[in-house]
Amino acid sequence: MDADLFFLINLLLWGLLPFVWMTKNPEKELRRWAAKGNSAKVKDLLRKRPFTFIINGKDANGMTPLMHAARQGHTDIVRLLVEKGAERKARNKCGETALDLALSQKHTEIVQYLKEFDPDEVGISS
Q1: What residue intervals traverse the membrane (predicted)?
Q2: Is there a domain that residue 1 lies in?
Q3: Structurally, how many domains does the chain consist of?
Q4: Which letter, b or e, does each residue of 27-61 get, where b requires 16 or more Cβ atoms within 10 Å of its Cβ?
Q5: Structural domain span for residue 84
């Protein structure tokens, strides 16, 4: 059984799931701290709520935490999110990936890091 599903089932069985959902919106929080470059907050959220759907949660524009971090040039957060399972090839509503966003802002270190996983990917919605 998937670890996320197992955790959610246990929360539900113990009656804690409504409390967890009402406390905060972890997807929104993760996107916000990734965009602002606050690696301590990102690490804390990932430690407290280790769900993959939070890491890959999209905002109204289809932007994931990885995309926000890549666009803003937060290399440490990009690396952390990828290590924790962030989907590198996810696309926002404009069809852009995290690599595309890093390229558009000339964040060369992030571009090089993301291209390590797929050297043939050229970016800008390839």
Answers
A1: 6-23
A2: no
A3: 1
A4: bebbbbbbbebebebbeebbeebebeebbbbbbee
A5: 25-115
